[in-house]
Design brief:
Helix content is 0%, strand content 56%. The chain is an all-beta fold. The strands form 2 sheets. Strands 2, 4, 5, 6, 9, 10 and 11 form a 7-stranded mixed sheet that branches. It has a 4-stranded antiparallel sheet with strand order 1-3-8-7, with no helix packed on it.
Length: 119
Amino acid sequence: QVQLVESGGGLVQAGGSLRLSCAASGGIFSIRPMNWYRQAPGKQRELVATITSGGSTIYADSVKGRFTISRDNAKNMVYLQMNSLKFEDTAVYYCRTTESSYYGINVYWGQGTQVTVSS
């Protein structure tokens, strides 16, 4: 069973930085794509960044040039470095991964970590 635990959220002023971490356990971490999603109050959850098993990265237009996703396969960790934070980055940030099985694709989510950017 895959488990994901996020950490690193908090309160930061606009223009500041935060680094989110996601610790993964269960299964084989290195072969799975990893995602960061976020959900602001009253809005749908949105994809922020993806890193593939090979290390390729994809970003939402709203965070390109400001956020960086990375992974450490030796530690089963994925990170989201967030710079030049804006008020509109305020949201609960979730770590997500998928795992293929005989029965289909299983999706796993962390519990989320709150990021609040003050203007």
